[in-house]
């Protein structure tokens, strides 16, 4: 899964599960803030101004069908309590994660990497163990 798609999924899943508002990610390993503006709920419309694209779609509270306009691909996102799973049709990769308080952990099976993000001051994204 491409890093900017992973960042969008972390932002959307974290906001849907926690109910918190987070309009940016801080990518610790790249030492830069990634803005993501928009709304999440039964419908999702998030804009990534760096990539100039929308991630939008709808869901029923537990399953969301999203479209990443920049990649021209669907993303399926399933929520189960504080856990989430998904499938990125662009990369053909599975992903999973968990929201615990102010932290979102994402595991991307496509490249075998794990990432965490904190929602305290926006949403911070970093690699586990970094």
How would you describe this structure to a colleague?
The protein is mainly beta. It has one domain (3-127). The chain has one helix at 3-18, and strands at 24-27, 32-35, 37-39, 43-48, 53-59, 63-68, 73-80, 83-88, 93-100, 103-108, 113-118, 123-127. It is globular, with a radius of gyration of 13 Å. It starts with a helix and ends with a strand. The model is unreliable at 118-130 (pLDDT under 50).
User: Percent range for helical residues?
Assistant: 10-25%
The total count of strands amounts to 12
Number of contiguous helices: 1
pLDDT averaged residue by residue: 80
Shape descriptor reads: globular
- Topology as a string of helices (H) and strands (E): HEEEEEEEEEEEE
| CA distance, first residue to last residue | 20 Å
Radius of gyration: 13 Å
Low-pLDDT segments: 118-130
What is the count of structural domains? 1
Strand sequence of the main sheet, in spatial order? 2-1-12-11-10-9-8-7-6-5-4-3
